[in-house]
Amino acid sequence: MSKSPLPGRPETVYYFPTCLVDLFYPEAGMAGIELLQRAGTNVVMPDRQSCCGQPARNCGYYEEARAVARTQLAAFPKDWPIVVPSGSCAGMMKKHYPELFAGQPELPKIQAFCDRVFELTWFLVHVMDIKLVDKGEPVKVTWHGSCHSMREMGVIEEPKDLLRSLANVTLVEAEYEKECCGFGGTFSVRLPEVSGAMVTDKVSNIVATGATEVVSGDMGCMMNISGAMKKAKAPVKGRHIAEFLLERIGKGDA
Amino acid sequence: MAQISHDFEHAAIKALGNKQLRTNFRRVMTGLINKRAALFPDPDELQALRARGAAIKDRALAKLPDLLVQLEQNLIANGFHVHWAESVDEGNKIILDILRKANARTIIKGKSMVSEEMHFNHFLEENGVQALESDLGEYIIQLAGEGPSHIVMPAIHKNKDEIGRLFQEKIAGQPYTEDPDELTDAARRVLRQLFANADCGFSGVNFAAADTGSLVLMSNEGNGRMSTHLPSMHIALMGVEKVIERLEDVAPLISLACRSATGQAITTYVNIISGPRRGNEKDGPKEVHLVLLDNGRTKIYNDPELRQGLRCIRCAACMNHCPVYTRIGGHAYQYTYPGPIGEILNPQMQGIEKAGDVLHASSLCGRCSEVCPVKIPLAELIVRLRREAIRPAGTAVKGGGSRNSSVENVVWFGWKTMYASPLLYRWGTWWLRKIGNLLPSGIPLLKQWTSVRSKPQFASRSIYDLARERGIRDE
Ligand code: SF4
């Protein structure tokens, strides 16, 4: 049974690539767009958007976060679903905007906006009912779910189901898979030692799986984990699940 | 970003460097996490129970002032003496007066986090009263001269061999051993003696039922029962938020607390204390006192959002599951309550100016909120208090606004200006892409980041440019 709140596959969706993807990983974002298109929908990416506002909100700077959130509210005027290749940014918009706008004149409109926000892998599975045909060589991968993806968006099995649906991909679970990687925004620079210990443990657990790749639905975590893997010269590659899936089904093959 | 005081950060770094401590905590916390999970096999039942637990506590909190009055009346009718303390100092003084009146020089204590909050042992010692801990964990840390590192298992930071050495040094005639049974026996011998001779017994309270005027106490060692029954006087101490409406509310809360805390279906002992020894009864204390402590709780109570924190039943699941606590242990948190619940309580009780550092001891991963048996949104409350730390809103939190920093205000003003304007965003990110990769790793923020990670590389093109090129519409 579908969990989709939508009547069917939408003809068009909005895309919110996130500021982190824009600055550091645009190809991961583009892969998400291509997956959506190949699953059968048009993608519109307004360029009047920027950031969900989470960094300021998490530090307690609500006014600043609200000002930035307003820009996003204005950037998606039509009632199309808004698909986000990050459970964390999606969680900010879906779960925290109502609280961010408590007592503000926009509040009545906010819920309708929140209802339109979806995490990419969840959307691909439950709304687009995407079917993947693996064209890649056999490979062993492990998964890192972001905290907000799991705990705010409830996205836990969807991305792993997508990985499991690929014939030549073996998915292995790392020890402490559901534990935070230690990034947590400014946490990583306010308490760098603790954050560093967390990501170091995360990397050891990933390496111990023997996987050659770790994939995630959030580039924030990936920036942290890949950065630590690179510094430790760990023999594991890290990337966004959209990029990985697209490569498996043949980029540009349609 | 230089807000973390050296106390907390240094303590955290020190703890991180202690390999044995880290291994201990990781092992024990993992064990507790697994045990808890095994006792909640059905996720629907877990959610239903959590909702019930939260509802019971919410119902009680909604009528808190009335329930406290009812509790007092029923306790008095049952023969208790009831005392109210607004502050730690007042609480300590009240108890000292009770002890002096009764000429009591030694007290034997069951576990009580509220007494830790009051630095009670230290206070009594200064006033010539000897307070001895009878909970094994508390006994160990008292011998070692330390505070608890966990709210349920206070000595969890200590290894068997450390305890062996400690006992050898402090207990007369005790040879070194690492055998847990022998160590427990050694402690038991000392404590039995004390139980028999102490002038007064002392305990905490897990729940106080307003309808029957009774106090409920959970314990695994039986020391709770002995310290409340053997001496001729018993003093119980509780925070005002511990009151619940009906005795029948206790059962689901106990089930939730035990399963969440230690992965037990129920503790070995559950005591329901309904007053002093009556007429022809042969045992039990002749005099029972209850001291109710506020210490900032009313202030927390007055804020509807922060009030949720008073639902806490002190099960410790939030710290057991916390990736930060697991790595640094409880002592690094500096004040009575460690882990996520401590991040909420300590700043409010001590004042943000003093204890606000711990508000940043969280990556906001949300695991605490996920496991809390009474559904306290711990991560949300941490963010709320971060807000209070810089810009106090509504009801005053002690030390609200004390962490406001003009440097950070400027940083966030700049951030907002750039990200709230699509034009400035495109322009600013264009520059970042141009020069970002030239920034040296030694500058603040990058320096911290690159201590264990490589420098992230800015992409050469914006996703918006790539998308236009590949025919993706923008409206
Ligand atoms: S906050 Fe929740 S999880 Fe933490 S000790 Fe209290 S009841 Fe337990």
Word description of this protein:
The complex is a heterodimer of chains A (254) and B (475). Chain A is of the alpha/beta class. Chain A contains 13 helices and 8 strands. In chain A, helix 2 crosses helix 13 and helix 5 packs antiparallel against helix 6. Chain A is globular. The relative contact order of chain A is 0.15. The model of chain A has no long low-confidence stretch (mean pLDDT 96). Chain B is built from 23 helices and 10 strands. In chain B, a hairpin with a 4-residue loop joins strand 5 and strand 6. Chain B is globular. The longest helix of chain B is centred in the N-terminal third of the chain and has 21 residues. By secondary structure, chain B is an alpha/beta fold. In chain B, strands 1-10-7-4-2-3 form a 6-stranded parallel β-sheet, sandwiched between helices. A 4-stranded mixed β-sheet of chain B has the order 8-5-6-9. Chains A and B meet through helix 1, helix 2, strand 2, helix 3 and helix 4 of A and helix 1, helix 15, helix 18, helix 19 and helix 20 of B. Bound molecules: iron/sulfur cluster. The site of iron/sulfur cluster has 13 residues of chain B, from helix 14.
Largest sheet of chain B: 6 strands, parallel
**What's the multimeric state?**
heterodimer
Summed over residues and divided by their number, the pLDDT of chain B gives a mean of 94
State the strand order across the main sheet of chain A: 2-1-3-4
List the helices and strands and how they pair.
The complex is a heterodimer of chains A (254) and B (475).
Chain A: E1 12-15, H1 19-24, H2 26-38, E2 42-44, H3 54-58, H4 62-75, E3 82-84, H5 87-100, H6 107-115, E4 117-119, H7 120-127, E5 139-144, H8 147-151, H9 158-164, E6 169-172, H10 187-190, H11 192-208, E7 213-216, H12 219-231, E8 237-240, H13 241-249
Helix pairs in contact in A: 2-13, 5-6, 11-12
Chain B: H1 6-17, H2 19-39, H3 43-62, H4 64-77, E1 81-85, H5 88-101, E2 106-109, H6 113-117, H7 120-126, E3 130-133, H8 136-144, H9 160-170, H10 180-197, E4 200-203, E5 207-209, E6 214-219, H11 223-229, E7 233-239, E8 243-244, H12 250-261, E9 269-273, E10 287-293, H13 297-301, H14 317-320, H15 323-328, H16 339-350, H17 352-355, H18 367-371, H19 378-390, H20 406-419, H21 422-435, H22 446-449, H23 463-469
Parallel strand pairs in B: 1-10, 2-3, 2-4, 4-7, 5-8, 7-10
Antiparallel strand pairs in B: 5-6, 6-9
Helix pairs in contact in B: 9-10, 16-19
Bound molecules: iron/sulfur cluster.
